[in-house]
Amino acid sequence: MVHTGQSRIGYPSIGSWTTWGLGTENENLPGFFVLLSGGRQPRVGKALWSGGFLPSVYQGVQCRSQGDPILNISNPDGVTRDRRRTMLDALNRLNQRNNEDFGDPETLTRIAQYEMAFRMQSAVPEAMDIRDEPAHIHEMYGTEPGKESFANNCLLARRLAERDVRFIQLYDWGWDSHGAGKAEALNEGFKDKCKQVDQPISALLTDLKQRGMLEDTLVIWSGEFGRTPMRENRGGTEMRFVGRDHNPGAFTLWMAGGGVKPGYSYGETDAVGYSPAENPVPLRDFHATLLHLLGFDHNQLSYPFQGLNQKLTGVQPARVVHDVLA
């Protein structure tokens, strides 16, 4: 629901809505990149960056930190770039004929995707190679080229933003802090996760600002829910590991750059942090505000599907939270 506005699978993600509405300024790279860290995908998987019912060209493209950045980005042994071009020209002629016969819009998407993939074979390896960054940048981010890490992904996000990629989404696994074991405990694993992300987040914001990019780049950090204020006892009577349960009713996110007020807090919970008490912001209002910051009217950004003009904010009224805007 955080990523698509709906609790049901099959709806477009925020990144897909954005790239569909704004397009892209780099014809050699996808407009929507997804970078993963933490050792595994989110449980919901690729539905979080799906294009849903939008044309499939707008879904997120997942990249890897090891090996080829994108699967099959390299030609097989014995296949030259000229041979690949000849094959694609023949395939495109067949797809054009298919489109003339049947008029399926997905055929045009397929043609565009093949052409994009050909251009990506040169552009993606260059964009995703952080080894040419100077030593002081690696020191600032805490990056280790060739490894999967949130730090590497933060640096990659800056490199992709420099190349006019429209929407870049980072996912980091390992924050489900119930306290069932060391990795999930607030007093163990949670502290380690905070140490992993604190330096690269600070570096990313500093780097964007010193390059003059932060004012035009909206950075958002959030989990998918909050945590309850009471201690969760999953470790038996000894309670060696301290954890908290899920709390979907109240949680915090922050935004930086891109037209938001710096150093400003909006909304409060009750005294124990369980429920919203002042200036609550439902997800649809957050989505309306996010779209406003990206230049959209959330009521106008819609796509016809199953008899409705579907929107990221859904069919209920939504408002832009103007108090958080600079």
TrEMBL record:
Pfam family, one: DUF1501
SUPFAM superfamilies hit by this protein: Alkaline phosphatase-like
Domain of life, per lineage: Bacteria
Protein name: Protein containing DUF1501
